[in-house]
Amino acid sequence: MLSYKTLTLGEAHLILDAAQKVAEKLGVPEVLCVADNSGYPIALRRLDGGKVTSVQIAMNKAFTAAGHRKPTHNYKNALPGEEAFGIFTQHEGRFTVFVGGFPIFVDGQCVGAVGASGGNGEQDTACCEAGIAAFMATLKK
Q: What's the pTM?
């Protein structure tokens, strides 16, 4: 029998709180999503001014990062003319290669992921990294 660790709702909110602080500091109306280890949302936060279209994108970024255990920006081979082009059509179009989705690992096991949409790639990344760092800091206590 296998057993898996996954993020809790409380941990998801901690991640979102840290990501939101960065988004507000940057002045970016992000949509932030934390998913469990299977890629399904635990918590979603649409900041004031966050685009309605960014909701699904943030969810898809978290889904892709958790499901494939890699940051979404690692899929450069999924661009037109590359060997994995078309992979984004899988999983009912939920697979995304946009920057801003990051898996979260504890003891080598993916426990979930965070996705951000609403800023540019650098801003989305900063929000995700802040959320992950805040979560990882709780494990060191």
A: 0.90
